[in-house]
Amino acid sequence: MTDGAATTTDSHDDVPDDYGTLYVVGIGPGLPAHMTQRAKEVIQTADCVVASNLYQEFLRDDDTLPPEDSDDGPEVVRSSMGQQVELTREAFERVRDGEDVAHVSGGDPNVYGKSDLVFTMAESDDATDVPIEIVPGVTAALGGAAMMGAPLSNDFCTISLSDKWRGWDEIEEKLRAAAISNFVIVLYNCWRNYTRAIDIVREERADDVPVGIFNDAGRGAAGRNLDDETFSITTLGDAKSHDDDVGGMGTSILIGTHETEPWSNDYETYLVTPRGGRDVDDF
């Protein structure tokens, strides 16, 4: 990547007057209710919005995007996994032609999202003249944790189980290090190798450690999961018997520590990981 001194957003004062901006916009875990106001404003005022069919459905749920048959609002370009490079190049050209482009990423663009692709391509395609802004969003780990109570109140990490760009040896090393270091672990891309991941963590943690499995957090009935938005609580020793709960890209698994405990009120059971050995009087 290009070497250079640290800069601030003030450097955008040098952008040519006839350029637009490429925004990589995190829309949160699902429906627009969990999206930031900044993300909504950027999408609604953009000249072009690049989004998958599923994300388009989410954004039309509250009229962040107009209905598909409407002539109002931004131009909407369908995004798919095999088109990311092509669509990013097109976005560069649109920005040079004066358009503001919102490239939509689920969750947060920096958490297994699209922001690294945009910067990598800006380097490889000599597009350093294109102004880029990342608009943050709520990632699935935080959306799912909110469903389950307070499981991330102490140190935690996220680990993707996708071996598309790195070997399983590296993934295993990170899993083991996180387990030994007593991090609460949130697994992404769980449908790929989740049973292998559970086996590794079990070598370092007791089988009675609580585990939460959540699907389509923040998506209600609008996601891909047949049972809509769900979460279940089990233990590390029993987690591998929950194949029916591990559906696809909308599934994440939260592995607690020896400090994580189930807690119930009159209505529901939650998971809580206290921040050390504090009493109420310590707050």
Structural description of this entry:
27% of the residues lie in helices and 21% in strands. With 283 residues, the protein is α/β, with parallel strands linked by helices. The strands form 3 sheets. The chain has a 5-stranded parallel sheet with strand order 3-2-4-1-5, sandwiched between helices. Strands 7-8-11-9-10 form a 5-stranded mixed sheet, sandwiched between helices. The chain folds into 2 domains: 9-138, Cobalt-precorrin-4 Transmethylase, domain 1; 141-282, Tetrapyrrole methylase, C-terminal domain (Methyltransferase, Cobalt-precorrin-4 Transmethylase, Domain 2, 2-Layer Sandwich), CATH 3.30.950.10. Helix 3 packs across helix 4 (115-124). It contains 7 helices and 13 strands.
List the helices and strands and how they pair.
Elements: E1 22-26, H1 37-45, E2 48-51, H2 53-60, E3 75-78, H3 84-96, E4 101-105, H4 115-124, E5 132-135, H5 140-148, E6 149-150, E7 156-160, H6 168-180, E8 184-188, H7 190-202, E9 210-215, E10 230-235, E11 251-255, E12 261-264, E13 269-272
Parallel strand pairs: 1-4, 1-5, 2-3, 2-4, 6-13, 7-8
Antiparallel strand pairs: 8-11, 9-10, 9-11, 12-13
